Amino acid sequence: MTRRVRWLLVLACLQLGGCATARTLDANKPGAPVVYAGTRLDWYALQGGCCPVERFGAEAPRYAAVDLPASALLDTLLLPLSLAKALGIGLQVTGGG
User: Fold this and answer.
1) Which residues, other chains included, contact 43 with Cβ-Cβ below 8 Å and sequence gap of 6+?
2) Residue 35's closest CA among 76, 93, 64, 96?
3) Quick one: residue 59, left, alpha or beta (phi over 0 = left, psi -120 to 50 = alpha)?
């Protein structure tokens, strides 16, 4: 097993706790930030924020610095949907559990 494969496996295991973007989407807390919410939650945790559940509706990942790039990527991919939500445009999208 090469060093690169081992590194990718370690990163994958760290992400099993859930990325911040998925956590904030699952929380669906009224009044919580929507645009780049996962990235903002990671940054909040890195800056020593005291109350992520009250602000974002979800706990920050244990390794916020590791999660930050993945959350930024996912938040960017979901940006059109989060902007529509923030602007109050109803897309009538449902799913999940």
Assistant:
1) 64, 68
2) 76
3) beta
Identify which of 87, 95, 40, 80 has the alpha carbon closest to the alpha carbon of residue 64: 40
Interhelix angle 79-87/64-77, rounded to 10 degrees, is 80
Q: Do residues 35 and 79 make contact, with C-beta atoms less than 8 angstroms apart?
A: yes
24-50 per-position pLDDT tens digit: 887 888 888 889 999 999 999 999 989
pTM to 2 decimals?
A: 0.73
**CA 73 remoteness from chain centre:** 10
**Greatest mean pLDDT range, 24-33, 71-80, 82-91:** 71-80
